[in-house]
Amino acid sequence: MTETDDAWFAGVDPGDAAAAAAAIREAAADEPRDWPALAVESGFAAEEAEYYDRLHAATVDAAREAARAAGRADDQQLIHALRAMDDAERTANELAERLEEWAGALLDVDADATGLDFAAVVAAHEPADATEERAVSLAQRAVDLRDERDDLRAFVERRAPEVAPNLAEMAGPVLAARLISLAGGLESLAKKPAGTVQVLGAEDALFAHLRGHAPSPKHGVIFTHEFVRGTRPDDRGSAARALAGKLAIAARIDHYAGERRASVHEDLRERMETIRARAESESDETTDGDDGGEVAGGDGAADAEVDDE
Predict the structure, then answer these.
(1) Which of 21, 82, 272, 288 could make a disulfide contact with 177, Cβ separation 3.0–4.6 Å?
(2) Which CATH superfamily is domain 164-307 in?
(3) What is the pLDDT of residues 151-179, one digit of tens each?
(4) CATH class of this structure's domain 74-162
(5) Domain boundaries of the chain, sorted by first residue
(6) Alpha helices in the chain (DSSP H)
(7) pTM over the 0.70 mark
């Protein structure tokens, strides 16, 4: 074995940019050496300056290919689809608002509908002149965007379970995709602690709290989950902590193992039953005339248990 056998440029044609980039990505050496001098000695470069030029070109090409591969990853495609869905919905609603102001006065349409439903009525109207034609065309665009939003949502609902099976089952496909999007990717979400997952989407409120202008947020987008939204306000903080803890675990399982694990879902269901049972317990104690202090003590112990999740 010669000194250049494990060099990244070993066996690479100096004019083959693709081979040079592949060598940068895949080659490895046991120890550092004077690569510029060895490159000149082996004939890969005429001088050290030329070696550095070729190294720079190869590393840039390798980085570009790595960026393209990352952009084609399944979780990134899911993020693009979700954001496109949000864009389509926002734009469709904005067009529908504009249309209500315009077509509501321009066209003689008998409809109690509002928003995109009104746009659908206008889209079916037969225009009588050039002005009405433009209003009807705008309505058709709004309806098309609504349909595209629905198609994108269906795509997200199909793709999310493939990308993150545990997260999608636990949070629902759309919320799972939204958490992945807010984190910047499944790997990034898997590396976040439960406390960060809990407030994803509530960054403005969190920063206001850190500046001393607002209380600490209890939850971010996970509020849309039934386990949080459907829990009484007094217990929502506990529910959000429990859910965020299991979501963080689910994301790690999906990223590092990629297999469904029933135990994490069962653990969450049991925890939520415990949290929601407090309301029934307190109601029974109130009916029996028990002192409220005992109930407060019970809540504190249960809250501490949830925090340990």
Answers:
(1) 82
(2) Nop domain (1.10.246.90)
(3) 999 999 999 999 999 999 999 999 999 99
(4) mainly alpha
(5) 17-71, 74-162, 164-307
(6) 17-26, 35-42, 48-71, 74-106, 115-123, 130-163, 165-171, 173-183, 186-190, 194-198, 203-210, 226-229, 236-256, 262-287, 292-307
(7) yes
